[in-house]
Automatic annotation (TrEMBL):
GO terms for biological process: peptide transport. This is Peptide ABC transporter, periplasmic peptide-binding protein. Keywords: Signal, Transport. The keyword Transport applies. Residues 1-23 form the signal peptide. Residues 67-355 form the Solute-binding protein family domain. GO terms for molecular function: peptide transmembrane transporter activity. Belongs to the bacterial solute-binding protein 5 family. It comes from the Bacteria.
Amino acid sequence: MKTMKSKLAVALMAAGLSFGAAAADITVGYAADPVSLDPHEQLSGGTLQMSHMVFDPLVRFTQTMDFEPRLAESWERVDNETMRFTLRKGVKFHSGNAFTADDVVWTFSRLKSSPDFKGIFGPLVSLTKVDDYTVEVKTDGTYPLIENVATYIFPMDSKFYSGKTAAGEDKAALVKHGNSYASTNVSGTGPFTIKSREQGVKVEFERFGNYWDTASKGNVDNLTLVPIKEDATRVAALLSGDVDMIAPVAPNDYKRIKKAKSVDLYTMPGTRIITFQMNQNSNEALKDVRVRQAIVYAVNNEGITKKIMKGAATAAAQQSPVGYAGYNEDLKPRYDLKKAKALMKEAGYADGFTLSMMAPNNRL
């Protein structure tokens, strides 16, 4: 397995967009489009972006990779297999319903049944209500990553999503790539409500006037999210003034953005790990550990970060970025082409072999 950690870069029109005290309406060109308003239908960047705007997690990461309370005010370990979360009081959903422990329990049960999320929640055996504002999470043995998993719990409005539609369909139904009540209707606790949505065209967000986090310094009243998948098209939209901000900015476009007048480019450390995974059951050669090691030694991570990523990434030697649980600073990228060739020869593949690969487009 080879790994590389990417950075996040955004660009905005400095002259036409002010983040001062006055409220603003902005249009953002974003690489991904949420395929659904159901936060549990697909685990993707577009869905998580929507979730953070319309819902709130129990816990979230800060820029320094610490855990920050959101809908959970605090949490404590009861024992090696139990963690207790104290929930925030006085929070309202967009529907007007009050947020309670019942919503967290309901959401957890739904996440456990989601094809995309159930793997993340596998180590968590149960989430039970202690009282209206306290829940307890039980794990299958000692599990140190409960807070990490809690960042994926965006409580849904259980009353809003319960019952039947006029057509007699279950409002709570989770339909993968299909039409459901939850895929077209939404009630969260987040800072924005969804005013309108045209899939693949735009999503219009409006500030939620009854948002619980009154200390939030956000000053955007209306935000339009326009999905623009192609990097060059996204940059062109920014430079022409069609959008006020874009994210992300591809490394190949850094120079173009920096040369443009009235455009500011911001970069910050990212946590996304780009990996090369090897399926040992698909190819006989990959069953040999020497072959897998040879592939690791043959990939020049440092070269990729400098030449292809233009410095917009750091070479990683493990799945955990700095600040994540399990990160080991002693693990370093291993590039040794001579050793890679020796291992291949030793394994009986001196002349190489053929592999089939699956890879997404526009992901650097």
